[in-house]
Write a structure and sequence with these properties.
The chain contains 15 helices and 10 strands. It has a 4-stranded mixed β-sheet with strand order 3-1-2-4. Strands 7-6-5-8 form a 4-stranded mixed β-sheet, sandwiched between helices. Helices cover 44% and strands 12% of the residues. The longest helix is centred in the middle third of the chain and has 19 residues, at 125-143. It is an alpha/beta fold. It binds zinc ion.
Length: 349
């Protein structure tokens, strides 16, 4: 499990250009929207202008791009120049998606690119583009309600590359008229990192940590299911869940009054109902959940249903652990699961 050192420790490591911290974190500089290695030779930013990430994936998703001096995505030996050109190409038109056809047109073999990208940057080119697009779109959600205001005024779409990037990640916008309604998306800050919440008048449809890899897939399937557009904005239920989460993280309450609307099969709903019956500060094993719903042999299916939960924290899939007491998987990362369980034992048990 990956748990970041404290802010103070990482900031000191940054000032010291401490190579011991290579691979432990990357640092995002808010003023330039660029992320660096701890050892970057560039002048060091002020503490209030930095945020730390476990890896390049997370920094990209938060809307940063890689520094050209310390090249925090590169592994040694130096990557082929063709790869660097591809990264440059993505920056030139961040809303376009380069496909295999485009690679071939540039005389590149897609499978070689995939392999080399994986080798040098630890992710495929496809994943890189996706993370960069997603990061830019989420950054705009983070920017908040001003975007929504202007969305209702005409002209915004053509005025900015934002919506084209947003569309690639979240689908068509409401203005295109083919959708029944819009689901509002809001970025919420939490002690465990940014979260994305989606709600409409019916309830809360999604609550996830923004670096969860399945996030894009989850939003896409939600959009298809509800035939809705997902647009950044405010909604009374988003305000409500934000308040309840603040109380939860402060250790004051662990009850949810926001109406929850998980979308799944009848079996998944059975599992999720069981999760909500686990009191805060307590855990159950997958086997116990299977037992409870009268399907003792369905342990693996319970595990899958647990992983399909899109309402992090409020449907407490983090309270399910292995039969041997080990934490096992968690979509938001094991370090978050551990944090949540510790927090609940301390405040709510
Ligand atoms: Zn740098």
């Amino acid at each position: 499990m990956k748990r970041l050192p404290s802010f103070e420790v990482m900031y000191q490591a940054l000032l010291d250009r401490d190579s011991e911290f290579q691979g432990v974190f990357v640092v995002g500089v808010k003023t330039t929207r660029i992320f660096c290695r701890p050892t970057c030779p560039a002048r060091k930013p002020k503490a209030e202008n930095v945020e730390f990430f476990a890896d390049a994936h997370a920094a990209l998703l938060a809307g940063y791009r890689a520094c050209l001096r310390c090249r925090p995505m590169d592994r040694s030996p130096a990557p082929p120049s063709a790869l660097l050109e591809l990264i440059e190409l993505v920056e030139q038109s961040p809303s376009a998606r380069l496909r295999e056809r485009d690679l071939r047109q540039r005389g590149l073999d897609p499978s070689t690119v995939r392999r080399q990208f994986q080798k040098h940057f630890g992710m495929t080119f496809h994943a890189y583009q996706r993370n960069r697009h997603m990061g830019l779109a989420l950054q705009n959600i983070r920017a908040g309600s001003s975007v929504v205001q202007s969305q209702h005024n005409s002209g915004y779409e053509s005025a900015s590359g934002f919506w084209s990037s947003f569309r690639q990640v979240f689908g068509e916008t409401a203005s295109q008229g083919s959708y029944v309604h819009a689901v509002r998306a809001k970025w919420l800050e939490s002690p465990l990192g940014g979260m994305l919440a989606l709600a409409d008048d019916d309830g809360l449809h999604l609550l996830e940590f923004v670096d969860r890899r399945a996030l894009e897939t989850e939003i896409t399937s939600l959009r298809r299911r509800l035939k809705c557009a997902v647009v950044p904005g405010e909604h009374a239920l988003l305000t409500q869940i934000e308040c309840e989460l603040t109380e939860y993280f402060a250790g004051r309450q662990a009850k949810w009054r926001t109406p929850l609307l998980p979308h799944g099969s009848p079996f998944e709903h059975q599992v999720w109902d069981q999760l909500q019956a686990i009191p805060p500060g307590h855990t159950r094993s997958y086997g116990e959940i299977a037992e409870h719903i009268g399907r003792p042999a369905a342990v693996r299916a319970v595990g899958r249903a647990n992983g399909k939960n899109c309402l992090a924290i409020v449907i407490p899939c983090h309270r399910v652990i292995g039969a041997d007491g080990k934490l096992t998987g968690y979509g938001g990362g094991l370090w978050r699961k551990q944090w949540l369980l510790d927090h609940e034992r301390k405040h709510f048990d």
